[in-house]
Amino acid sequence: MENRPSDDDTARELAKVEAEPLLPAEKWLIGGSLALGVLLLGVLLWVSKVWFPTGS
Question: pLDDT, tens digit, for every residue of 5-14?
Fold first, then answer.
């Protein structure tokens, strides 16, 4: 039978770990993903207005 660490033990060990800064490639991927999401939302909005107009 395994002796698993408790939640308190895990929390103490995680508190000791220092945060690592994001790499430039990671920052670029995050920014690119956000920009792509906004762009695609704009395209979806445009397509819905052009191809599926409302009565007003």
Answer: 888 888 898 8
Q: What is the mean pLDDT of the chain?
A: 90
Share of the chain above pLDDT 70, in %: 96
For residue 41, the surrounding DSSP H or E stretch is helix 24-51
In the numeric block, which tokens belong to residue 33? Answer: 């993903």
User: Cα separation of 1 and 56, whole Å?
Assistant: 69
Name the residue with tokens 């660490």. Answer: 5
Q: What is the DSSP letter of 12?
A: H
CA distances from 13 to 3, 4, 8, 22 (A): 16, 14, 9, 21
Longest dimension (CA), the chain: 69
